[in-house]
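EI: anyone free to look at a 226-residue chain?
SC: sure, send it
EI:
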Amino acid sequence: MAAEPKPERRRTRAEQRAATMKLILDTSEDLFAQLGYFGVTIKDVADRMGIHPALIHYYFDGKKALFDAVFERRVQYAVTTRTAALDAYEVAAGDHPTVEGILRAYYEGAFDIYISGGDGWRHFGRIFAQVNNAPGYGAELMDTYFDPLALRLISLLQKALPDATPEDLFWSFQFTSGAYTLILSRTGRIDRLSDNLCTSEDFEAARQRFVTFMAGGFEALYKRAR
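SC: here you go
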């Protein structure tokens, strides 16, 4: 006789709580990515999940706390991987860093996350782009998590371009950061402009070109100033 299947183990209260939290964060991440911070309410999240809004309020003290939790769930990993890449490059380059090498260390791994990380990371990419490009909500999150990393990047670029003015380096970073988050936004505009020759979902195509293009901009501005 075939053995009777064992009954499934009942999840502990901690496991149930963790599963509920994950579902709330996943659902919220999807909605915030599509509609932005101001386009989503707690009720929208609850309706998508088929639950009462009170359950979400039980876990999160309002929409801002929910948004912060969505952002913070992935941002620490993003900062850690970029920091490690800059550390490794600085050791390998020694006294001879290059602009392209620095930018590649900073951006290549980030692109890889969005290429292989699934829908959750792509949703986070859109949210990150919203926070990076809009004043007000979320700005303090960028200050806390990314400003020290950005300043580290700029200090390395100063080492590669010792005669560059701080103004040129900060503006160059601003241009680079803006272009990067436009890619993460996946607006579909490049699809329409190119008649689908290029697609905004193609992070691999962007990754292959991004650093080379941006490094050229840094170098051109540096040469012009000299």
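EI: The two ends are 86 Å apart (CA to CA).
SC: 👍
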